[in-house]
Amino acid sequence: MFKLLAPRFKAIIHNYAFGGLSGEDLSEQSRRILLINLFCLVGVLFTLPHGILAFIDGDMMIAASTLSIASLYTFNHIYLRLTFNYEVSSNIILYPLFMLMFFLLYSGGVAQTGFVWIYCIAPVAMFLHGLKRGLIEITFFLIILILIFLFPNEIGATYNWSAELKKRIVYSFLVLGFLSAFYEYSRMKSIHLLRNISKDLEKASKTDPLTNLLNRRGMLEIIRDNNASKKIFDNAIVICDVDFFKKVNDQYGHNVGDEVLIKLSNEFKETWGKDAHISRWGGEEFLIFIPSSLFDIIQPEVERFRKRIESIRFGALDNPFHITLSFGIARFDYQKETVDAAINRADKHLYKAKNHGRNCIFSD
Ligand SMILES: Nc1nc2c(ncn2[C@@H]2O[C@H](COP(=O)(O)OP(=O)(O)OP(=O)(O)O)[C@@H](O)[C@H]2O)c(=O)[nH]1
């Protein structure tokens, strides 16, 4: 029975807490919505019985204020569910809470215990509004708190606390404010660090470390995203392979081979960096994706590039050598075929270029 009901209960709580959002992401929006909804729940669960008891006891001021807060928080949950506007919702939580706390301080609260609730202000302000705004709000609260304590008789406050207790209330509120700010600062620092690490990891997972070009994964993602952004016509996929690269490695060493790949990558970037996406597709193979371009002008462009590379001197000054490139080009329309099929076709053209003696271009 428990096993049957537990997931259902969990789903209801999850749905309530995230107000219908999945809550899977770690975004600030999800975090704030969760906090506001939980706060509304706790607020209602606490103020409602408190208000009812105060009403039964005939303490109408306390009953009216706590029941108003319970109604407000219920409204706030519904408002947030409908609008996801957590900015407004967090204000609806915090500022009435300020008013309630001022009232409890001013009146002394039930049996003169009103001050015990003010400590929730600091963490709630930090949770809801972050470090900077939270600090301003806590400072504002502290100033009003001190003003209430400084002028009790003149403004007719009904609390009855000794000067010593009032001092300690201020000090302990300050300590809690400081701890909450420090906690929020550490949290923000950790999130910042995590975001940077995750960005770096994301970039590394899509980048070839030798040439700094996109790797196969990064390139496939870009070609697929391009489809989503509806640039669907007249795309070109160019696959380029260095001819007899094994000989370069064998003759000049692996390091020189690496330098050739780096220099070649820079040439690719210089020629197509602005208009196309360039990747290191495999060992000595590169894939260039040229989106939304006139296909007829691509082949001459590639031909110019082939000739340029042919004329460049690679290796040491006293021991230079030349390399040549073979190319396969496929015209690619997202509406007519899949990315894989287009890449296969470019690959087939490259194969033909290799069989045709290398240092040439084959295309659709
Ligand atoms: N220096 C270096 N060599 C690499 C790298 N990745 C792959 N290679 C080398 O690239 C060479 C590819 O050789 P093959 O596949 O036989 O092709 P090829 O010699 O270029 O001949 P064709 O492609 O048929 O013209 C191999 O010797 C690999 O070791 C790399 O990152 N650095």
From TrEMBL:
InterPro entries: Diguanylate_Cyclase, GGDEF_dom, MASE6, Nucleotide_cyclase, Rev_trsase/Diguanyl_cyclase. It comes from the Bacteria. SMART domains: GGDEF. This is diguanylate cyclase. The chain crosses the membrane at residues 34-56, 62-80, 92-108, 138-157, 169-186. SUPFAM superfamilies: Nucleotide cyclase (SSF55073). Gene3D superfamilies: 3.30.70.270. Residues 233-364 form the GGDEF domain. It catalyses: 2 GTP = 3',3'-c-di-GMP + 2 diphosphate. It is an enzyme of class 2 (transferase). Keywords: Membrane, Transmembrane, Transmembrane helix. PROSITE patterns: GGDEF. Its EC number is 2.7.7.65. The keyword Glycosyltransferase does not apply.
